[in-house]
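@channel sequence for tomorrow's demo:
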Amino acid sequence: MDIVSYRGEGAGGGVSSALKAAFDNFGDSKSRWWFLQNNDLSYLNGDARVHPVFNLENDLVQGHYRYCNEFIWPLMHDLPQFAVFKDADRNYYREFNRKISQIQLDAGIGGKDIFIHDYQFAILPALLKNSQMSIFWHIPWPKNVPHHFSEPISELVLGMLSCAKIGFHTNEYAQNFIQFVHDFFPEYRVNCDELVIKNRKTKKLTRLLVRPLGLDLKFWKAADAKQNLSIELPDTPIILSVDRADYTKGIMQRLEMIDYFFGARPDYLGKLAFVQICQQTRPGLKAFDDYWQNCRDYAYEIEERYAVSNWKPLYWHTNPISQQELSGLYKRAQVMLVNPVRDGLNLTAKEYVASLDSPHDQNHKSGLLMLSSGAGVYDEFGDQAVDVNPNSCKDAAEALNYSLKMPTINRNNRINLMKQRLKTNSLEKWWHDFELTG
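C-alpha cells (generated this afternoon):
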C-alpha cells in the first residue's frame, strides 16, 4: 500500500513518526511513501533512500499552503472567524493536486492500494480514479460550515467520496461529515448508524471508519529516558505541555491560566514551574504570526510578574526536541497539560501515557493527564484524565490544584487504565484497518 502525505520522514510531530513506523513495519517491498520535501515531490521505498521525482513551482506550493492553512484549517476546527478565502489560492490547491496526481499516475501509482493522509490532498482521490483508495482525515470535521463556504468545502467532500474508506479519529467527526453530505448532496444516501454513504446513481459505497491513530508502543517503551536533556529545566516539579503555537491549541488560554494560578495561589511560587515545548508554526501567515507574537509577549509579562531569584514560572523552549528526549521529559512531568480549544486528536497525550512506567503500587507516584474535551483523544482518555476548561482560567487553575493534590493511588489507577487502552488501539491495528486488498 502506497502512502501519500504532505510531510514525510523526519518531519516534526507525532504523525510523521507514526507513518514512518507503519511504513517500516507493515509495508511491503513494493510500497512507496510519497511526500513533499523542499518543494520536491519525493518518495521513500524499500531501499530507505528518499527519491526526488519532480520539483513543484514555489508559487504553486505557497498558494496551496495558504489555502490549506488560512482557509481549510480554521473551518475544520470550527473557527470560521479566522478563515481567509481567495479564489487564486483555491486554484493553486486544485493545480497542486492535479500535478501530483499526474506525476503519480505516470509513476504507476494507480495500480495499487493508496492511503492518503489529510486535508492537503482532499481532491486527489477524484483525480487518481482508483477504486482501492483510503483517506484519513487527521483534523476535525466541523459541526457547522458557514453557508457561504459550503461550495469550496463540497469540492473537498466529492474528492474524499471517491475513496472506498474515509477515516476519522472520533465518531463526532464522522457524524459531522455525514451530516454535511446529507445537507448538500441529495444524490447520496447516508446511513448514520452503519457509517456508509452510497451514490444513488453509481451505487458506489464509501465506508467511514472511526479509528483514532495509534502509537508505536514498542518505541515509547524502549526509549532511553536516562540520557541528559539538552534544555533548561527547573529543579522543581514540572507541569508539561508540548504543542505548536496555533490558535487551535489554546496556548493563550494556557498562559492566562498560569497567570491566574500563581496570582491566586502564591504558595506555589518557587515550588513548581510550567515547561512548554512550543514552536512557531506556519510562519508568514498573518493569523499565526500574530498569535505567536501575542503569546510570546504575554509570556514575558508573566515572567516579569512572578519570577524570583533563580526560579521562573514558565520555561518556554521554542526548538523541537528529539523523541528520545521527549520520553525523558514525559517521565519527569508531574502533570501533562493538554488544553486545546479544538484538536483533531493530540498524540502528545498518548505519548505521555505510553512513556510513563506502569505504576504497580501506591508508593510509586505516576504522572497525571489534564485534558480538554476539545481534543479528539478525549474520547479515549477523557474519563481518566482531569478535565481542563481552556475557556476559564479560574476553572483550569482549580483543576490543576486538584491534580497536584490527587492521592498517588488515584493517579496510578488512572494511568494504568489509559495504558490498557493504548494497547487495544495499536498502530498496527490502525494501519491494517485501511488496507483494501491482499
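heads up for whoever presents: Residues 1 and 113 are 5 Å apart (CA to CA).
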